[in-house]
From TrEMBL:
Superkingdom assignment: Eukaryota
Pfam families linked to this entry: Beta-prop_KIB1-4
Phylogenetic lineage: Eukaryota, Viridiplantae, Streptophyta, Embryophyta, Tracheophyta
Domain KIB1-4 beta-propeller: 43-267
This protein's name: KIB1-4 beta-propeller domain-containing protein
Amino acid sequence: MPVGMSTFTSSQVLDAAHLSPLLLFSEDNSSTVYSLVNPMHDNENYLMNFSELLLGATIRFQKGGWLLMSRKKKLFFYNPFAREIIILPDFPGCYFKCDISFSSIPTSSDCIVFAVEESGPDVNEVSVHCVRRGEQDWSSYDFVEEMYSPLRNTITSFDGAFYCVGYDGALGNLNLANGNIYWEVLEKPCQQFKDSYPSFLEQCGADLLLVKLGCLEMPVRIFRLDFAEMEWVKVDSLGKHMLFISDITCFSAIAPNSRMENKIYFPRLCLNGGGVLFNSLETGSYHSFGSQHFAKNFCGTKGWLRNCTWIEPNWSLSTPQELDWFKPPSLP
């Protein structure tokens, strides 16, 4: 990481380049100072001070510039750009056994926070917890399930439903229609993969994509779900799209230029100061824009096991009513 870094403040005037996804991470979990790296703007680096109230908190998910964070049983949203906090009811589940997400930015009247929790290695059961904007308490539902081994990763919204993926490629489908909770593990795809390497699920254009990593020099693989045949089909090119993946959040975007397209951006930095690591589908290798880094694996790079994610900058200020979870915003 370069030594010289700027301080990122809300008073800065930003051009369009700064509104691209940023890599957010903390080098010291006992500090409220976070680093930001912009891969689309020469890997510019900034420092950002979070509120002291967030000391020791863990980032669980990100959408639209809002971080879902926890500290013990406390769960809350935080927008680090506007420095706004929204407090949620205490979470009833166990974070370390959960995939947790939210449907839309928390100031929206239709925002729902939900979690899929594995009950234990000897219990074929999945618990779903959810709380809607305006509700005082969480609702919890238990489902007997023998086909799904949860992979604690991001839950992805697609075509009005929410999906999470198991180690073998099996899809859990969570539907929150009409005020009810519906959970099922789809019969297909099932046991298409025989490994337990990291997987990342995200929407890209009109497709639901699965990114699978491997060990050593095994290439990154991308699949799209063929909904007609209900099977994962290999993808060789992302076209003009780019993917941003992390254990906390995954999303896609259309590249602003040809240099950025057809690549997967990882939450890792090159040790030689070369900036953000990416995998090029054209070369099948790992590179960075700031150096001549070229590798078949993560060697020569650094990542963070906690509080490291991609974030979409959001400078919009909220009203006091929007910042009160228990008072739904007025409908237009």
